[in-house]
Amino acid sequence: MSLLETRSDALRLHEVRKDFGARHALEALSLAIAPGEVYALLGPNGAGKTTALNLILGFLTPESGHIDVAGTRVDRDPLAARAKIAYLPETVMLHPSLSAVENLSYFALLGGRRLDEVQARALLTEAGLQDEAHARRAAGFSKGMRQKVGLAIALAKNAQLLLLDEPTSGLDASAANDLSQGVRAAARRGIAVLMATHDLYRVKDVAHRLGILRAGRLLVERHTDELSATEIEALYLEQLAA
Ligand SMILES: Nc1ncnc2c1ncn2[C@@H]1O[C@H](COP(=O)(O)OP(=O)(O)OP(=O)(O)O)[C@@H](O)[C@H]1O
């Protein structure tokens, strides 16, 4: 039995293949993420990153292969698998007339969890939203603030796996840094994180491991502590050119 088979992964993809007509979006993709680990899935446009997230979420069905979320197979029990996943989309939709605390409480309740104000504020703080914004209406929130509320909603779900699609796109450096801190906070709680990203420069700070996907194939996986930020960029460019 290999090391991969002995650890209890929060996410495992086993040779997952997905076609759209004649196009092979993913070719036998296998990867595993441990609890508390942040994994950055890098790749150019059309590499298959969003397809992989949609398969994990059960929005798409693979041609072959299968996916386990904390021991639950997505194809056998999609609702149970989905219950273990929190998803932070690129654009977080909030009720504009409700405050951050109210939005969080509302979405947590939809997920079956009742939060009091102290708990809601603690989660917003953990996600990086400054105190003075907690009681403000979301209508005036920047994209970065919306992402932080989205992250707090994800934390409230007590999920075992957090999926993020391009979480820092369109954020300024400071907001992207805040979001990275929030992701690391989620990982410290033991949540496994899979983030699809183009943000090469932040990968070293936020992720423990990276994988480079091109045309549906995972070309390389590395631990980020083995590489400098410059080496990550060089590796990415080298793999894309190969
Ligand atoms: N619903 C669909 N129907 C047909 N083809 C699709 C569909 N969704 C994705 N594809 C194709 O599958 C491939 C992978 O797309 P995907 O969106 O997963 O890539 P990506 O890595 O997320 O790209 P981006 O960085 O642009 O978001 C692309 O060739 C894309 O055109």
UniProtKB/TrEMBL annotation:
Signal peptide start and end residues: none
Gene3D superfamilies noted in UniProt: P-loop containing nucleotide triphosphate hydrolases
InterPro entries noted in UniProt: AAA+_ATPase (IPR003593), ABC_transporter-like_ATP-bd (IPR003439), ABC_transporter-like_CS (IPR017871), ABC_Transporter_VariousFunc (IPR051782), P-loop_NTPase (IPR027417)
GO molecular function, one term: ATP binding
Key words of the record: ATP-binding, Nucleotide-binding, Transport
Domain of life, source organism: Bacteria
Domain named ABC transporter: residues: 11-240
Any Pfam family hit: ABC_tran
Transmembrane segments: none
Lipoprotein keyword on record: no
Protein name: ABC transporter family protein
Organism of this sequence: Lysobacter antibioticus
